[in-house]
From TrEMBL, chain A:
<feature type="domain" description="Exoribonuclease phosphorolytic">
    <location>
        <begin position="14"/>
        <end position="139"/>
    </location>
</feature>
<keyword id="KW-0539">Nucleus</keyword>
<dbReference type="GO" id="GO:0000177">
    <property type="term" value="C:cytoplasmic exosome (RNase complex)"/>
</dbReference>
<dbReference type="GO" id="GO:0000176">
    <property type="term" value="C:nuclear exosome (RNase complex)"/>
</dbReference>
<keyword id="KW-0694">RNA-binding</keyword>
<dbReference type="InterPro" id="IPR001247">
    <property type="entry name" value="ExoRNase_PH_dom1"/>
</dbReference>
<dbReference type="GO" id="GO:0003723">
    <property type="term" value="F:RNA binding"/>
</dbReference>
<keyword id="KW-0963">Cytoplasm</keyword>
<comment type="similarity">
    <text>Belongs to the RNase PH family.</text>
</comment>
Automatic annotation (TrEMBL), chain B:
<dbReference type="GO" id="GO:0000176">
    <property type="term" value="C:nuclear exosome (RNase complex)"/>
</dbReference>
<dbReference type="InterPro" id="IPR015847">
    <property type="entry name" value="ExoRNase_PH_dom2"/>
</dbReference>
<dbReference type="GO" id="GO:0005730">
    <property type="term" value="C:nucleolus"/>
</dbReference>
<dbReference type="InterPro" id="IPR036345">
    <property type="entry name" value="ExoRNase_PH_dom2_sf"/>
</dbReference>
<dbReference type="GO" id="GO:0016787">
    <property type="term" value="F:hydrolase activity"/>
</dbReference>
<feature type="domain" description="Exoribonuclease phosphorolytic">
    <location>
        <begin position="71"/>
        <end position="173"/>
    </location>
</feature>
<dbReference type="InterPro" id="IPR027408">
    <property type="entry name" value="PNPase/RNase_PH_dom_sf"/>
</dbReference>
<dbReference type="GO" id="GO:0000467">
    <property type="term" value="P:exonucleolytic trimming to generate mature 3'-end of 5.8S rRNA from tricistronic rRNA transcript (SSU-rRNA, 5.8S rRNA, LSU-rRNA)"/>
</dbReference>
<feature type="domain" description="Exoribonuclease phosphorolytic">
    <location>
        <begin position="193"/>
        <end position="244"/>
    </location>
</feature>
């Protein structure tokens, strides 16, 4: 089967290209391209949590914004609603960041992370998680592990494909997404959409985990080879 | 009307004092002379999935220092405006997602003003009747989205240059209306190409200092800010002035002459097409 991004097999993944420190006015930033999907993540300079929170742990706040021209399914010029998929993604990413970043090392500090989705062709979660991990690492925040995400989809012909693009995502019967720490293999976030048998859900999740871990060498190599880190 | 400078861990008031001290010594933060501009670089992006995403053009505007603007143009068919049935529609939206969240309300008015400025300047240089498909029934609706990645002063000039680079020689593709009529492809052209620059004035010790192409730090300390937009014949397309005191006519003509002397360099930099290597 012929797939997008030069892939021939159902378990082929698109490998991310990571560029660090692309924005000058932020504390740290990362731009990740995954096929035709492009995402920029920026970490602002940490602020002091003075009035709203006191304790021994810091906080990571995340905002995900989608460019109006990014997706193909942005219908016309509808009014921006309050509940968006980006809001769900930002809340999930905050939970992932709480697990990955050692918050006791930054007490009473607020770290604000902004993600902008510039172009989308499937694999948005993969690109967003990879860019957030790269931006936090290049910002000098102590973390337990790097993290990344990968999706898998069950197509209408019964095939399970890894890292689906936009066309495969829209035609899928069911899809799963897993956000995994790359070295320890622990799952930070998992999501399933659609309907299928329980055995297929397990197959989708395990396929997504394999795809996520298969990108580990590509991600760590690009982060290690950066002159700053 | 400019975004606050990125001072990092330095307080804004201390940063301003530092900039004022440099200006009294006839220096600028980035070491430029007072009458030099930052030459822009335009990167056109050729996307392979243009038909799917309705993205007609995508350009990345950068200069030698911090400003970086991403301009994305999308087009759909829609009804023409009722008051002008012979014209197409053009909307401009400016967003700055990478500014800190605590200044969101502060910069929202600035972004709206930027969008209005870019739209009015483009409309005065572009014939909107070229976007008309069927008079009174169908027209192209172009949406210009400008994303400020980095903002380092001169935002009106930067956003205008990014939008002009994306819209000039834009090919409206061959498409089919819902009624079944086929619309041939068309090339969009400006009948005059605007270039802009921001000039700051500092009144120190009774003498007036002109700062051409101000950055964000200089805009925060300048007494007067001028934005001059000119075309190929050095005609004035737009002129914006706001500050703490009014200006005399020789100051205005000096400001226009400063921008006109760099107009050819700016225009060639904007229209020069550079694509990423295939």
């Amino acid at each position: 089967m012929k797939r997008n991004g030069g892939r021939e097999t159902p378990d082929g993944v698109r490998y991310p290209h990571i560029a660090l420190d692309v924005l000058g006015q932020c504390h740290s930033s990362a731009c990740v391209e995954l096929g035709n999907t492009r995402v920029i993540c920026a970490v602002h300079h940490p602020q002091q949590l003075v009035d709203e929170y006191r304790g021994s742990r810091g906080r990571v706040a995340c905002t995900v914004r989608r460019s109006a021209s990014a997706g193909s399914h942005s219908a016309g010029s509808a009014q921006p609603s309050v509940v968006t998929p980006e809001k769900d993604m930002s809340l999930a990413l905050e939970g992932v960041a709480e697990e990955v970043v050692i918050l006791e090392k930054i007490p009473q500090l607020l770290v604000e992370v902004v993600v902008e989705i510039l172009a989308e062709d499937g694999g948005v979660w993969d690109a967003v998680a990879t860019s957030m991990s790269a931006a936090l690492v290049s910002g000098g925040f102590e973390m337990h592990d790097l993290f990344s995400a990968c999706g898998s989809a069950l197509l209408s012909d019964g095939a399970v494909v890894l890292d689906p693009d936009a066309a495969e995502e829209s035609n899928a019967q069911a899809s799963a997404l897993v956000c995994v720490m790359l070295n320890s293999g622990e799952i930070c976030y998992a999501r399933h959409q659609g309907s299928c048998e329980p055995g297929t859900v397990l197959e989708l999740v395990s396929s997504a985990m394999k795809g996520c871990l298969s990108r580990k060498s590509a991600i760590t190599t690009q982060l290690i080879n950066h002159p700053i880190l | 009307m400019s975004l606050p400078p990125a001072t990092g861990a330095v307080e804004l008031s201390s940063f301003k004092q530092h900039v004022i001290r440099l200006l009294t010594q006839s220096k600028r933060l980035d070491g430029r002379p007072f009458d030099s501009i930052r030459v822009p670089h335009i990167l056109h992006e050729n996307r392979q999935d243009t038909k799917i995403n309705r993205v007609l053009a995508s350009t990345l505007y950068t200069d030698d220092t911090g400003t970086c603007v991403n301009c994305i143009v999308t087009g759909v068919f829609g009804p023409p405006p009722p008051q002008h049935p012979e014209e197409g529609r053009l909307t401009v939206e400016v967003t700055a997602p990478f500014f800190p969240g605590y200044s969101a309300f502060q910069i929202e008015g600035t972004l709206h003003e930027l969008a209005r400025f870019v739209r009015s300047t483009i409309i005065s240089c572009l014939d909107l009747t070229e976007l008309c498909v069927i008079s009174g029934e169908a027209c192209w609706v172009l949406r210009v989205e400008l994303i400020l990645m980095n903002a380092d002063g001169g935002l009106r000039a930067a956003t205008l240059h990014a939008a002009v680079a994306a819209l000039h020689n834009l090919t409206l593709p061959k498409a089919r209306l819902p009624s079944g009529d086929v619309v041939e492809s068309r090339c969009l052209c400006f009948h005059r190409i605007p270039v802009a620059a921001t000039i700051g004035l500092c009144g120190t010790a009774g003498s007036m200092q002109f700062l051409l192409d101000t950055n964000a730090a200089e805009e925060s300390v300048a007494d007067v800010l001028l934005t001059v937009v000119i075309d190929e014949t050095d005609g004035i397309v737009s002129f914006l002035h706001h500050g703490r005191f009014p200006l005399l006519l020789p100051h205005l003509t000096d400001a226009i002459d400063m921008v006109a002397s760099h107009g050819a360099a700016l225009r060639s930099a904007i229209l020069k097409s550079s694509s990423p290597p295939q």
